[in-house]
Amino acid sequence: MSVATAPNVPSILVVEDEMFVAMLVEDILSNSGYRVTKAARVDKALEMVDHGDPFDAALLDINLNGVEVFPVAAKLREMGVPFVFASGYGREGLPPDFSDSPVLQKPYLPDALRDAVAALLGRTNGVTHAA
């Protein structure tokens, strides 16, 4: 049984418009035991959140080809889904409504990504770090 179809596998929404980065994140998280769903646009991400399978956590790039991801973050917050913003600007790119949200500084290392997702899920020591 693959991770994508295994029951009780945490589902992570990755909202990232740079295809190479999205594929890299998917590989890292999939190899770490997560089920990953990707969206490259805000409207697609909102559709997935509203009408798709529920997500356990999300990684949100702040700027998607000039469109900010904050409507997705607001919807996830409303639904109680934890998320982390990914940004090259750090906290400086966050509006006041999200100033308390975690930020993963880009570029990030695989271990930092795994640790950030594990923290969202309340896992103290993360998941298996497969190579």
Description of the structure:
- It is a single chain.
- By secondary structure, the protein is α/β, with parallel strands linked by helices.
- 34% of the residues lie in helices and 21% in strands.
- The protein has helices at residues 19-31, 42-51, 70-79, 110-120; strands at residues 11-15, 35-39, 57-61, 63-64, 67-68, 83-87, 103-105.
- A five-stranded parallel β-sheet has the order 2-1-3-6-7, sandwiched between helices.
- Helix 2 runs parallel beside helix 3.
- The longest helix is centred in the N-terminal third of the chain and has 13 residues, at 19-31.
- The chain is globular and about 35 Å long.
- It starts with 10 loop residues before the first strand and ends in an 11-residue tail after the last helix.
- The relative contact order is 0.17.
- The model is unreliable at 125-131 (pLDDT under 50).
Computed Rg: 14 Å
Distance between the termini: 19 Å
CA-based shape:
globular
As a percent range, the share of helical residues equals: 25-40%
